[in-house]
Amino acid sequence: MIRHKEQPAIVVENVRRTFHSAARGRGILGGLFTRSAERVEALKGISFRVSEGRCTALLGANGAGKSSLLKILAGVLQPTSGSVSVAGYDPWKERILHRRAIGVVFGHRSQLWWDLPIQDTFRFLETVYGLDRETAAKQTARLVDLLQLSPLLRTPVRELSLGQRMRCEIAASLLHNPPVLLLDEPTIGLDLVSRIRLRGFLRSLTSESRTTLLFSSHDLLDVEGIASHLLILDEGRIAFDGTYDAFRMRQGKNSSVVSLQLDPPILTSLLDSLVRLGASISSDAAEADGCLTFRAEKERLNGILDHVLATGRLLDVRIERPTIEDVVLSLYEASDDHGALRNG
Amino acid sequence: MIMVRYVTDRLRELSAVIHVEFLAATRYRTNLIIQLIGSLMTVAVLLFFWRAVFSARSTIEGLDWPFMLRYVVLVRFINCATQPTNIARELSDKVRDGSLVAQIVRPFGLLWYLVCRNLAAVFWQLLWIGSPLILIGLSMRLVPETPTHLALFPISLVLAFLINSAVEITIGLAAFWLRRNEGLIHAHDFLYSLLSGALLPLVLFPVPLQRALDYLPFKASIDVPVGFYLGYSRPAALLYQGMWALIAWSVCWLVFRRALRRFDALGG
């Protein structure tokens, strides 16, 4: 169980995964006759590393390979080629050690006993992971407290709401305090309050217990709320791997949208000087009601606002940073231009 | 020392599965009671049937009413001690809806988990159906012919369980390829009850079929263990059972290895 401290928590090298799906003939009885296998490459040789204690969001359109990747890391799927190490263990060759080092939640599938209250599943896991009574009790108490599970402990899982169930699933995956937690769409179908709670919990998890967290999501707000790093898949390849800030920079989305309410009329001389200061103003930006909207780099904002203030004609100002949706969308649009993204 | 550790770890896992499955099974009291009544009812129905038969003729192929009485009670006991019910169906459902993944991500050998699941099912049956049958058997003074037979009977039961559980697991895992395998499950249920001796003693079948059954695994499940208790199985029958247990587990293991690589089929 001794791991080298400097070793990344997740190492993926040149992983490929090919699926064979059976294509059947047409018509009511078509399935009985024609059959042909279709090869689909879900992952086309990807490599990346995740260092210990980092929280990474896995993004990508439907069919980009997110679930396949998470299943490979969890040891459910075997890569067609390439090597994988999670917490220092090979998911297939060191199966049991690997399983002890990870916690997994698949948002679409429950790992709890449907008819039993969650505390029975906890007791089962406690025995399977071989936790001693005291450690297990302490960890259970901590998770019950953090995820507010105490009113749910005695309710059969089938009677829980989706949000309650998801909190239970996450608690069950963390009972053995694994160094690596893999979550496949943990916020799927949750209401706003449940989402926010879950984000808060995951954030505290990475900051307090140094758990390495890799999660996939379609809700980009999850990403902004929790993850420091992004891993974006597109058609089985890595489209981006790095920090969120680096991603903004790369996509040229480090600029903000500035709206100024000025005392009309807007003078051409003002527009010229703003352009000189770094504002990118489109031709129809100035409107009759005295509203002026333009984009500007973060570093240029100071100079521009100083200048506007000096004119003494500013009534109101609004500055918006682009949301993560804008940023990710710009990546998809860019790859769409190259015809790479089909399933968007 | 390592061996001891290994064994205690496996037993710990077994106890966890038994505990949680027993909890799940007791969750629905009505279902439990109906199951219990239903299974004892099949014994009653068979006994009424055979009593009607033997009131018309005192012997058939050398069988008489006292023999059939013992036979029916024993068959039911052996069935509940060695044949885990519904495991194949449960497993193929888990394969189809992908919930088997929950086991795969845990530090629990999957094949061992499936064996534990089979054992839990059999222990459950023994507790609820087996124990009343033992009382019935004792009240009938149903004891083995000789001490040797008494000693060989449990071994025969274990071998029958090994064969049955390997077959259940293999049929359940077949869902990886077949997707829907109800057909296979029904076919096996039918062949098992007809050809193992569960429904009627094999001596009542035509002789050519009886000879053919010597080369098939079915009678290892019921007929051979019954024979040990009633005294008509020879010790060599253990070899026949052992051979089929070996074959069943070899097939099961091969299917299991290949099934693990077929998880791709489960989308999402």
Summarize, please.
Chain A has 344 residues and is an alpha/beta fold.
Helix content of chain A: 25-40%
Q: What's the CATH architecture of the largest domain in chain A? A: 3-Layer(aba) Sandwich
| Number of domains as seen in the coordinates of chain B | 1
Task: List how many beta strands of chain B DSSP finds.
Answer: 2
Q: Give the biggest beta sheet of chain B.
A: 2 strands, antiparallel
Commentary on this structure:
Chain A has twelve helices and 13 strands. Chain A is of the alpha/beta class and about 350 residues long. In chain A, the strands form three sheets. Chain A has a six-stranded mixed sheet, with helices on both faces. Chain A has a four-stranded antiparallel sheet with strand order 11-12-10-13. A three-stranded antiparallel sheet of chain A has the order 2-1-4. In chain A, helix 7 (about 190-210) links the parallel strand 6 and strand 7 (about 210-215). The longest helix of chain A has 17 residues, at about 190-210. Residues about 1-5 and about 340-344 of chain A have low confidence and may be disordered. Chain B has one domain (about 1-265). A two-stranded antiparallel sheet of chain B has the order 1-2. In chain B, strand 1 and strand 2 (about 65) form a beta hairpin. The relative contact order of chain B is 0.12.
